[in-house]
Amino acid sequence: MIRRSPDAQAVAGSLGALLGRARKPVGVALIVDGEVAWSHVAGAAAGARFQAGSISKSLAACTALELAHRQGIDLDADVSELLRSWQLPESPAVTLRQLLGHTAGVNVPFFPGYRQGSQIPSLRQVLQGEPPARTPPVRADRARSGRFCYSGGGYVVVQQLIADVSGTSFAEAARTLVLEPLGMSSSTFDEPLPDALHSSAARSDWHIYPEAAAAGLWTTPHDLARFACTLQAAALGRPSPLHTGTASNMLTRHAALPAKGEWNLLPLLGVRPPDAGGLGMFLHGSDRFSCAGSAQSFFAMFTGSLADGTGGVVMVAANASTYPFRVLRAVSGQYAWSNFSLPWWRRPVGLPGLRRLA
Length: 358
Prior knowledge:
The chain is α+β, with helices and mostly antiparallel strands. It has a single domain (8-346), classed as Beta-lactamase (3-Layer(aba) Sandwich). It contains ten helices and twelve strands. An eight-stranded antiparallel β-sheet has the order 2-1-12-11-10-9-8-7, sandwiched between helices. The chain has a two-stranded antiparallel ribbon with strand order 3-6. A two-stranded antiparallel ribbon has the order 4-5. A hairpin with a 2-residue loop joins β10 and β11 (298-305).
């Protein structure tokens, strides 16, 4: 018997009650047959922008890979040959592939961001760990090289590399290489958020992330869904603004994930944890990819499938919320997503450190 996919509007209607109970602004986008089928924002203006947190790394990886394709950069060459304005001090050979795949042994897992009105460090001050930076100097540890070790610091090195190679700012390179070609017109890596865009922020108490490649993307659920769709198309050899090699590198297994990590919380939320990491992406089985991100006052997740062209995005103006997972589980049930939800009898009990949005 052939299972018919439900109509996107019907699925959206079934999500109405869930969206209506949200106490904070929330945005949702659905992907069907490799296209953005529906998007909606509740609790804020239709074009509200959300901070994407660590999802920024997926777009930064995409930018680096597109730049590498155009410039003929060897992903396995020592990045010291590409960096001009700064170098990893006393570092073993580190490659762009390792930096994008979190296997370079670089420190500084996450960045806290900076309050509006506070002193904001330059990218060089972040790399050097100099005031007003609030994080230690970015360094590579030979002992950790070659195995997955989540590193926002590694993506700050990528940010500097892209600026040095492109001869422009990272935000401008990302706009030219990825955001504009993909039609992500409501997205920006400009940090801080330009004054003209303040009114579009889903909430006003956001932080500034000079470490834009690691955590500084502002976007919408619709734009993020477009990104997932273009990855699906490029990976499957269909017309796409992205080079097929970019999608292949992002969606091919690069490293096994360690036993301990934030992904261990996903079974508690009824979601299958990733099996491996690609370049800037997490992989579930052979067909599903995903990424989640948290910034001050924001949390988001997106996922897509190469098997059936489905996917979804949920962005909320609230930290550490279970809401995105509840929405995506509801959608996954409607479309019978593979490698996403865990059956209830396989789910552990308890959600330490997480709170409900609705």
